């Protein structure tokens, strides 16, 4: 996959970014790991997330996706292959 410059950051990204809001929420560990593994196998290199997404769903507190993503990064050894984008904000 062709990489492109991310503004003036010095980082190069591929044209597809995987949205990570379902990991650990509507996708369990096995499904999350399978999607993430396949994404990297197919040349994916950036995952977008925000810890507030799952907080909007009853029964979640927020951060479920990031926890799952961290577990996958540790288990897969793919940390040096992935960029992670996130957002910050405040409630209210």
From TrEMBL:
Look up and give the organism this protein is from: Sphingopyxis flava
Lineage top rank: taxon: Bacteria
Example GO CC term: the record gives: cytosol
Can you name this protein?
Aldo/keto reductase family protein
**InterPro entries tied to this protein:** AKR_Detox_Biosynth, NAD(P)_OxRdtase_dom_sf, NADP_OxRdtase_dom
Residue ranges of every copy of the NADP-dependent oxidoreductase domain listed in the record? 17-88
The record's annotation in Pfam families points to:
Aldo_ket_red (PF00248)
